[in-house]
Every structure is written in C-alpha cells, then in structure tokens.
Amino acid sequence: MRKVLLAVIVLIVCVPIAFVLSRSATPAIDLPTSVSVIGQATPIAVHVRDPRGVRNLTAFVEQNGARYVVWELAKPSIEKDSTWNFTAGVKTTPQLRDGKAILMVEATSNDLLRKKSHVDHEVTVVTQPPTISVDSEQHYLYLGMADLATFNVAGSWNAAGVRVGDQKFRAWPMPGGKAGLFSMFAFAWNMPAGTIPQVFASNGAGNDVTSPLTVQFPKKEQPKYTVHDLQVSDAFMNKVVGELDPNGSGDLVARFVKINNEMRRANNKTLSDLRLKTADRFLFSQPFARQAHSQAEATFADLRNYIYQGKKIDQQVHLGYDLAVTQHVGVEASNDGRVVYAAPLGIYGNCIVVDHGYGLQTIYGHLSHIDVHEGDAVKRSQVMGQSGMTGMAGGDHVHFAMQLDGVQIDPKEWWDSHWIQDHIAKRVDLPGFQK
Ligand SMILES: [Zn+2]
Q1: Residue 142 C-alpha to ligand 1 middle, in angstroms?
Q2: CB of 402 within 8 A of CB of 301?
Q3: Of 23, 129, 153, 216, whose CB has the highest number of CB atoms within 10 Å?
C-alpha cells in the first residue's frame, strides 16, 4: 500500500516537472552579423523565438572591460516569434570610443525554468562620419550620357560613389596605384534636369555624407529625343506573341502589350543586375567600335508609339541603336572585354552582354546565332555571332546598347576617341589608350 502511495506521489510531483522540463525552451536569438559597425545611432533588429515568449531581452555593448546596456525589453513578451528594433551608438552610450567592441544580446525564456541564451559578435565603433573631398572639375551633364568624377574619402567608410537622383554608381580605387577614388556615372535619359550628382560615402553605422559635384547643364545642347510611330502589322504581332508567349491565350493585343511592358521590364532588370559581374579594371584601351557598315534604323531614347490598326496600343522608350547591315551579318564586339551573358533574353532575343570593366557593358540583341559563351574574353571587332530577328524585332538588325552600373546610356560618346580622352583618359589611367 505504501509503495503504491509513494508511486502515486512520485507521479504527482514528477510528471509535471518532467512535463515542464520537456516543454521548457531556450530562446533562439538571431542577431544579424550585417551589423558590423556602430556609429551615432545604428539601427539593429533582433529576432527572438521561444514558445513561451521572453521575460527579459537585453542588448549590451562591451568595450575595454566595461559593459553598457544599450537597450532592454520594457516588459515580458508572450510572443513566440518576434523582432525587436532599437539603436546602439554614441548618442545613447557616450562612453564608447572608436575601435573594437562586442555587441551582445541576452534573452530569458518566459517559462518557469527561465533558461537564458546569449549571442554576441565583434563590431567596430566609428564615432566620426567619413569626409569627402571632390575634384574641382566642371562636369557637363547631358541626358543619357556619362561622365567621370574623382574624389577622396577619408575616415572609416564601406560604401562610396556618385549618386544621381536615386541611382548609385560605385567608386573604385584609382587605377595604377594612385591615391583616391573615381566613379563613372550616368545622367539618365529621364533624369529630371536640375538633379545635382552627389559624391556619397557611408560607414555602415548610419553615417552617410554627401558632397555635390560642380556641374553645368547646358540647356540648349541637350539631346532631343525623337518620337516615332511604329506600325504593328498582324504578321509582326503574331511573330512576337508566338515566339515570346507561345503557351498564352486570349487577346493578341493584350498579350503583345504585356510582353512589351512586363517582359521588357524583367529583361531590363536582368541586364541591369549584370552590373555586379564586372572587372575592377579597364578591359579596353581603344574607343568603342560601331558595327561595321551599319545603318542606324533607330537611335537612343527614341519614343515609340505602337500603332495597330490605326490605334495607339502602347508607348515605349527605345534605349539603344538598331544597327542594320545585311541579314546574318557577323555581330562584332564593340571593344575588348569579357562575355557576361550569352543566352536568350525575352524581347532582346538571343542576347550577348560584354563587360568592359568598372560597370561599363555593351549589349547586343536579336541575334540568330551566338558563338561565344559566358566567361569568354573577346577582342574589339571580334565576331561573336550572327545578326537576326529573334525577340521583339521585325527585321534583321543588331540592337546595340550600353549600360553603366546598370543604367542604360547613349553609346555615341564611347564611339568618339576625343570624348574618351577628355572625360576618361585625362582623369584616370587608361593603359594603352591613344587618342
Ligand atoms: Zn532595338
């Protein structure tokens, strides 16, 4: 009888403890390692998971043997999965000095056992924003065109470049081991006049500084973009829709317009993202070459009205040159470089993109055949494939375009050795360049 009683008592006491133990959890803390620098007031987001929520959650910065609380949860939370945002930095912890420190987060589970967990990682405290000194050059801005600025950034920084409106162009160390930085930037075809390009530098700690370039925007000499009506025949519409939306159904015009908008946008994003596949040196030493013996059937930033059966069904801006020679002509690389794309790309058909370094790239569309592969080095005027009319093309031609850090620009300046001399080679080392 006693034994039974004892067993019952053991059951009554131990089962709930075992139950609590089995249910008790340790909070899982996720402190992003992307926070590597702490400045004035650096935003931090901590993600915590615990089936019972957290009783305490505290963030500390430890430096030179001292520990400072930078943030604390005001009251226990029963949320199982939560993200907490706070800032850490000199503003709230003035004792911090420039140099290494440890960022820590400690969490206590909200259940009976109050299990604790802890994460930490090393950070650098940077109390001063970087400083920028910009070249004293006058930069002449033209819609759709490029230029090059040189500047210096001092102090601690992890990102710098030229910002034009909402577009960013990376800074690179000056070639040839010279001191300072440079950035090739574009003033996009649709950038509002009066936008002042700014050199920027940031240190990842919320310190972002800018300094304007000295610019001129010659109003009278700006390119004038032309407007064209493009007659969409039934044959062209059927060709485009059949090739680019073969499994679709429904209204032909709606499908055509969808291709011309959604697919165009997606294809342009793919092109723009190739900015990250670039060499950190100039791969070319000569002016860019235009496809030999070619006629330009369309030029950069022409506005196209798409007319079908007398009605305007769409409007797009054409961000390149349509260069026609004869059918199946050899498509020539415009300059020395490296192939970073060689595959079908929607409205551009079979498409090649060649990188020339520092974010400068050339694009070749509508090929009937591609003879190069991603990674291939190509030489100026080397034949890379054959022209054709794949993608959104009504006749055999090469769609030739250029982009700088993902922003499409007018190639014509790059065909001009004087322009390259005055805007590039005069400002940075362009090895082997002769005007
Ligand atoms: Zn084109």
Answers
A1: 22
A2: no
A3: 153
| Ligand 1 geometric centre to CA of 298 (Å) | 7
How far is it, in rounded angstroms, from Cα 349 to Cα 354? 16
pLDDT band at 146 (very low <50, low <70, confident <90, very high): very high
Structure tokens at 152: 């210096």
Distance 268 CA to ligand 1 centre (A): 13
The encoded tokens of residue 158 equal 């992890």
| Percent over 90 (pLDDT), the chain | 82
pLDDT tens sequence across 148-174:
999 999 988 889 999 999 999 999 999
What separation in Å is there between the alpha carbon of 355 and the centre of ligand 1?
A: 19
- 64 three-class SS: coil
Distance from residue 310's CA to the centre of ligand 1 (Å): 23
The answer to whether residues 225 and 145 touch, using CB atoms and an 8 Å cutoff, is no
- 215 Cα to the center of ligand 1, angstroms: 31
**Nearest in space to 358 (alpha carbons), one of 173, 141, 166, 176:** 173
DSSP 86-98: EEESTTT-TT--S
Q: What is the pTM of this model?
A: 0.81
Name the strand (E) or helix (H) holding 354.
Answer: strand 350-355
CA of 364 to the centre of ligand 1 (A): 9
Question: What DSSP letter does each residue of 164-204 carry, written as one string?
Answer: ETTEEEE-EEPGGG-SSEEEEEEE-TTPPTTPPPEEEEE-S
Which pLDDT tens digit goes with each residue over 211-263? 999 999 999 999 999 999 999 999 999 999 999 999 999 999 999 999 999 99
Distance 320 CA to ligand 1 centre (A): 6
Long-range contacts of 76-83 (CB under 8 A, 24+ apart): 76/110, 77/53, 77/110, 78/52, 78/53, 78/110, 79/53, 80/49, 80/50, 80/51, 80/52, 80/53, 81/47, 81/48, 81/49, 82/47, 82/48, 82/49, 82/53, 82/54, 83/45, 83/46, 83/47, 83/48
> Residue 127: which pLDDT band, with cuts at 50, 70 and 90?
confident
